[in-house]
Design brief:
Layout lengths: L2 H14 L7 H26 L24 H27 L8 H26 L4 H25 L18 H25 L15 H28 L5 H24 L5 H27 L4
Helix pairs in contact: 2-3, 2-5, 2-9, 3-4, 4-5, 5-6, 5-9, 6-7, 6-9, 7-8, 8-9
């Protein structure tokens, strides 16, 4: 029997061992994807904040002669190449998720499409990273690289919620009814979170942490855009506090209460980090913490919006 004729039987045996329902392995892969995307934001920040943006001075190779970093490149080459390797690890997780979802690709199309979107976006992210290097860390390209990471955090958060049956068409629980105003408020908070992140990219492009001593800046007024960036942050805080008022005034329990309190904690943490770094000369460590906070904020805002969207209205 030829290899071609045996292939369908081999594939059939493989697929027969894959899940026919969302199980703990699929849920763990979803969580791993979210954690990995968040770590990628942190390692990307480490590349820039340690001036390792050109630690690998070319792309797709690390140097003209080597695919990987060499000892002569020192710590900067190690940091930059390590960040590149993490992208491959995330691609492997996304590919494994698709494999595990193969038998569910029609029944759980929501999970399959989210996992497919994560896998398709990772090579695109790698290409943008390559353009970042080839343009010698152009701040607008660096900003796009970061924004794609934020979008992947959003997709991964939705994937976790769907995999655990918390939200969406396949919820395995009944959520408490919310006041009619809750859904538009959480939609606004999520939108303002995205706007704050985008304006934060502009602020970063004007700031001192360029990723390399010779990298260009966007030549905008850093102080002015820092204050503009703060406006949606104030609106996020106001919306979150109003959501907390609804939670306690109406005695709302369950997922929405947890989501709102988590969002409040992340929002206040981001505010403290933002003000502290502004008044203390923008130290690199706090900038890195602020980048991690941005990923946590996007995840928390997405989660709160998703829960509100999936909850019935009083």
């Amino acid at each position: 029997m030829s290899t071609a004729s045996r292939l369908p039987k081999i594939l059939s045996r493989v697929t027969s061992r894959l899940p026919i329902a969302v199980d703990s392995a699929i849920r763990r892969l979803a969580v791993l994807s979210l954690v990995g995307q968040t770590i990628l934001v942190v390692t990307g920040g480490a590349v820039r904040l340690t001036a390792s943006g050109l630690g690998c001075p070319t792309w797709p190779r690390c140097t003209e002669a080597s695919l990987v970093n060499t000892p002569e490149m020192g710590i900067h080459g190690f940091i930059e190449f390590g960040n590149r390797l993490l992208t491959f690890a995330l691609a492997a997780v996304a590919a494994m998720m698709l494999v595990y979802l193969w038998n569910l690709r029609k029944e759980r199309r929501d999970l399959f499409l989210l996992a497919l979107g994560l896998l398709a976006s990772i090579p695109a992210q790698a290409v943008i990273g390559g353009i970042t290097v080839l343009t010698r860390l152009n701040p607008w390209v660096v900003g796009l690289h970061f924004l794609v990471s934020m979008a992947l955090v959003v997709f991964a958060t939705l994937l976790v919620n769907r995999a655990y049956g918390r939200t969406g068409r396949f919820m395995d629980r009944v959520l408490p009814a919310l006041p009619g105003v809750a859904r538009p408020v959480m939609t606004a908070v999520a939108a303002f979170s995205a706007l704050a992140v985008m304006l934060g990219v502009v602020v970063t492009g004007a700031g001192p942490h360029a990723g390399d001593a010779d990298a260009p800046r966007n030549n905008l007024d850093w102080d002015l855009f820092s204050h503009i960036h703060a406006v949606p942050a104030y609106l996020i805080t106001a919306g979150t506090l109003f959501a907390c008022y609804l939670v306690f005034r109406r005695r709302i329990t369950g997922l929405f209460r947890t989501a709102v309190l988590m969002l409040l904690g992340v929002t206040l943490l981001q505010a403290v980090i933002g003000f502290t770094q502004y008044y203390n000369g923008i130290p690199a460590l706090l900038v890195g913490a602020h980048m991690l906070g941005a990923a946590l904020l996007m995840s928390a805002a997405t989660n709160a919006w998703d829960v509100a969207r999936s909850s019935p209205v009083r």
